[in-house]
Structure prediction request, 360 residues.
Amino acid sequence: MAVLYRKYRPKSFEDIVGQEHIVTTLRNAIKMGEVAHAYLFSGPRGTGKTTMARVLTKTLNCQDSKEKDGVCLSCSVCAGIDNGSFIDLIEIDAASNRGIDDVRALKESVQFAPNQGIFKVYLIDEAHMLTKEASNALLKMLEEPPVHVIFVLATTEPHKLLPTIISRTQRFDFRFLTLEEILGRLKNLTNKEKRKIDDGVLNLVAGASGGSLRDAESILGKIFSLNNIEESEIRKLLGATDLASISNFIDFIIENNKEAVLKYINDMVSGGEDLEQFINSSIDYVRKLLFLKLSPSSEVLISGNLTKEELKKAKIQTTGLTEKKIYGIIKQLLEAVNNIKYSPMPQLPLELAVIEIIGE
Ligand SMILES: [Zn+2]
Prediction:
């Protein structure tokens, strides 16, 4: 089976998931004929920087751009970009072509007019990997770019670029995708592939992706090849802790129910749950509660990893906890996870932690 990420790579601005702020600005710039000669696409891996550069190239060069969203998807340019044969899109991996000679060769090539299209687009991936000498040579080109050339510098580490390079570009910051955005995309792909996968499983995949759409699609591809796609199996495979289980655990703490929480811990142990992982995931969750408590506006920050329902539940929980109490829980859980390796029984540090948290 073809890799999902490649098979369903967005073909137009319309197909791109998330990054609306960038799509809108680029679309408008193209419409107004105000395209910049150098762009900086900065942001974490797997958030669509290269895809955006390809769609931009296509929209600028399509031979029948009167079509919807500026691309016809059938002319030789559109087809060429999709199958990698369009020669006016030059992709350079700066991680392996980082020296001055590489940039000199680039400088030669930049002089020539486009072969097939209107604009030649140079996509320099991992641009921060260029040597200092090469960066300076690139800067010279950015200072006087030929009219038919557009540079797109993509990077995960913009702070490593020369400030003078950054100031020559129009910068776009790509963000991690939210859980809901990733979920929507995964559902879409599952339908296109005519597969049946439970929402719970897709939720797990989205959660495990950490906001990277590429990672989410790659995990989904692996799941498609499995025989057993039950939620419990996938949870084990991904090493994921059930958020509902963490949330229950916190409920018992809010209710000061020592007896229930100790029983809960021991049930987890007999059920074979990895306690270290459970504590780590709980710390992550309580940290989110702390953020929500400190500032309701941090919801945006949190919503990337929680579904709407989960977020609603988390908000209710924060009302039952003081800031000090949340801080205390994190502190105790951190201590428990540090002690687990040295404990004669894996559950003991967690038991002591909750007794300490709930108090007399
Ligand atoms: Zn076209």
